[in-house]
Amino acid sequence: MIKIAIYGKGGIGKSTCTANLAAAFAKMGKRVIQIGCDPKADSTINLLGGKPVTPVMNYLRENDDEPESIDEISKIGYGGILCIETGGPTPGLGCAGRGIITTFSLLEELKLFEKFKPDVVLYDVLGDVVCGGFAAPIREGYASQVLIVTSGEKMALYAADNINRAVKNFEDRSYARVRGIIMNRRAVENEEEKVRAFAESAGLEIVADIPRSADIIRYEDMGMTVVEGDPECETAGRFTALARKLIREESKENSDE
């Protein structure tokens, strides 16, 4: 099973990258789960035709009992992707990270992975600060790999460095490792040079180079990913190439065991 946590600074395009990667896997016939781990709960909306799923934390606040099945806190989106959002606390109250921990515990109780039997699980995680619940996907062993989304913007690279350092803190515990960087271009001056310099200094590979594209915005306005809207365009091809790369690596690792 491919299990990837996708981190990056807020607003850097994590959800766009995660949803398009999920769509690319699904288009190849893989069974995919995408779990949005951000209080905004908008990670999966473009897999669902623009109609959001009820976040787990909202469900728990609005109901006296916990859900009895995954169906109550999920929706099936494009390509059969199972979409789940953790959500967060009432604004101004509580800790958003606790929402992730609570959701993961509930998903274990409902035997999500045993019942759905996914080939791929993607976690879209707020990454400005990798602490507490936001580190759960890597700290608790839910994900085996981390992809960091960044542009050439100063604060995006600063967040990327913090995320990389945080993951390295868990290396000796056999938790997730950083697989590489997704360069999500934002038309910053000398952008490629800046991102490549960071990647080299951190010893990381740039696994995908996503162009700044009006196609992404156009299809997101229609409630879909660019992979769904125009699978033959260049941007969709970049996500498809990344999905193929990750599948090949997983197959090779399995054959080597």
Question: How would you describe this protein?
Answer:
The protein has 257 residues and is an alpha/beta fold. The protein is 41% helix and 18% strand. The chain has 10 helices and 8 strands. The protein has an 8-stranded mixed sheet with strand order 3-4-2-5-1-6-7-8, sandwiched between helices. Helix 6 links the parallel strand 6 and strand 7. Helix 1 crosses helix 10. The mean pLDDT is 91.
Any key phrases for this structure?
single chain; 257 residues; alpha/beta; eight-stranded mixed β-sheet; 41% helix
Strand order of the largest sheet: 3-4-2-5-1-6-7-8
Report low-confidence residues grouped into runs of 5 or more. none
Task: Give the total of beta strands.
Answer: 8
The major β-sheet equals: 8 strands, mixed
Large-scale geometry: globular
Q: Radius of gyration over alpha carbons?
A: 17 Å
Distance between the termini: 14 Å
**How confident overall, as mean pLDDT?**
91
Instruction: Please work out how many helical segments DSSP would assign.
Output: 10
Judged by helices, strands and strand pairing, the structural class is alpha/beta
Q: What kind of assembly state do the chains in view correspond to?
A: single chain
List the helices and strands and how they pair.
Blueprint: E1 2-8, H1 14-27, E2 32-37, H2 56-62, E3 75-76, E4 82-85, H3 96-109, H4 112-116, E5 120-126, H5 136-139, E6 145-150, H6 154-168, E7 177-184, H7 191-202, E8 206-210, H8 214-221, H9 226-229, H10 234-256
Parallel strand pairs: 1-5, 1-6, 2-4, 2-5, 6-7, 7-8
Antiparallel strand pairs: 3-4
Helix pairs in contact: 1-10
